Amino acid sequence: MTTDNRQIPRVLISADRSSSGKTTVSMGIMAALKAQGYVVQPFKVALDYIDPEYHTEIVGRRSRNLDGYLMESEGVIDVFNHACNSEENDGKKADIAVIEGVRGLYEGLDAETDMGSTAQISKILKCPVIMVINARSMTRSCAALIKGFASFDPDVNIAGVVLNNVGSQKHADKAITAIEKTTGIPVIGVVYRNPELDFWMRELGLIPIPEGRKTYDRFAERIKLIESTIQDSIDLDKLLKIAETAGTLDIPKNSRFEERPAVAGEKTPTIGVAFDEAFNFYYPDNLDLLKAQGVEIKLFSPLHDSEIPEVDALYIGGGTPEIFAAELSENESMKEAIQKASKDGMPIFAESAGMNYLTNKMILRKKDEPEQVFGMVGIFDCDTVYGSGKRIVTYTNAVFEKDTPIGKAGNTFIAHEFHHSLVENVSKDIEFAIDVKRGFGIMDKKDGMVVNNTIGTYIHYHGSSYVDFAKTFADSARKYQKTKEE
């Protein structure tokens, strides 16, 4: 099998709609290939944190996101090539890539184009598609569905089918015959109905891996069952032959991941990244891009550590702090350390849930239960509310109106919002640095609360899309480092 990243074998796992089983099938395929000795590089279409955590858990390589709306074609290929070339925990470059799609194959930004869709990524990466079909109560109709999807866009190469949620061998045989005789597309796998293959879910999707590993009985056992079931259900030889039909890519000459030239006499700035069960939503490319800018990354835990490490900036990302509100509230020394760092002018970037942690209080509201209130860090003079019933998932277009640790006045960007909390009781003295053109923001189309040199946003950024992010944040850390030495 070739390891040339212009032609690296690859498959994209998609479906006709959400909840068809593509996440389960994708993870099983990744596990099966790894078990056969392949170095598997996983990917997820669109900006999502949790599914990639599962990919990473299974193959031992960090899963990356590919988004055709946020990243132009060259950016998608750059992220793909960088990931496949990276020598991760196994110390090797990837020799096959498995990409999990999002929603239905053709679902995207609008009704008239494939912008932001799984189909768009398949065309950018010249990648064959494996369709996962929830075959419950369907046999011959599966053929009609596949034929329609295959003819809808002739530039999308649907090269194989996996039937999921199948009730019996007879059920499978009828569906396979109908699909293969009608469309000529091979069925390469059949997954029989088993409720034990379902995952634990919550408002915004799957339970994050760090939380699930700690709080759910049989969590690891459930993942192992999914791996073994899919391994026994997929014809890997057929899948590998399909993967080898992927086209040759034009690799960008200038990569966003090229290392910043070292400057004589300059010290390496360090950014502390909050990472534990409460905060674990980070795009690996953001951390890689910061490293490419000459930054050292130090992980710390707002849940378990008593203070922040010796660093020049803090990055507190997204996650599920509402699940651990009591523990976060009780860690007074950590809250005091972060508050002091902010008062001292340290650059702090708090992203979505990270921002919620830096408000005055976290208020948890559940139907028919007393309201719970927990004290948080208190940098931003407002409160966070979970349980309002509001759910925000959208792309965001915005512009910085003033300088911040992650962006300068006039910087425009495309990003996304992904949360089910709200911010209330916002002080009239709060300053906002971001004007939201598309999306919601914190309030009244404003985002980016700024206090001292700390910025909190409901916006999630991907450094391959918002290219000023890594350089600006690294420069902010470098500048603060110098002030400490003066």
What is the C-level CATH assignment of the largest domain? Alpha Beta
Largest sheet: 10 strands, mixed
CATH topology of the largest domain: Rossmann fold
- The number of helical runs is 14
Task: Describe the protein.
By secondary structure, the chain is an alpha/beta fold. The chain folds into two domains: 10-243, Rossmann fold (3-Layer(aba) Sandwich), CATH 3.40.50.300; 270-485, 3-Layer(aba) Sandwich (Rossmann fold). Helix content is 31%, strand content 26%. It contains 14 helices and 25 strands. Helix 1 (22-35) packs across helix 8 (219-233), helix 5 packs parallel to helix 6 (169-183) and helix 10 crosses helix 14. The N and C termini lie far apart (56 Å).
Summarize the structure.
The chain is built from 14 helices and 25 strands.
Record keyword descriptors for this entry.
486 residues; alpha/beta; Rossmann fold; 2 domains; seven-stranded parallel β-sheet; 14 helices; 26% strand; globular
List the helices and strands and how they pair.
Layout: E1 10-15, H1 22-35, E2 40-45, H2 50-59, E3 64-66, H3 73-85, E4 96-100, H4 118-124, E5 129-134, H5 140-152, E6 158-166, H6 169-183, E7 187-192, E8 201-202, E9 205-206, H7 209-215, H8 219-233, H9 236-243, E10 270-274, E11 279-281, H10 284-292, E12 296-300, E13 313-316, E14 318-319, H11 325-330, H12 332-343, E15 348-351, H13 353-357, E16 359-364, E17 372-375, E18 380-386, E19 392-400, E20 412-419, E21 421-424, E22 431-438, E23 446-451, E24 454-457, E25 459-460, H14 468-485
Parallel strand pairs: 1-4, 1-5, 2-3, 2-4, 5-6, 6-7, 10-12, 10-13, 13-15, 15-24, 16-18
Antiparallel strand pairs: 8-9, 11-14, 16-17, 18-21, 19-20, 19-22, 20-25, 22-23, 23-24
Helix pairs in contact: 1-2, 1-8, 5-6, 10-14
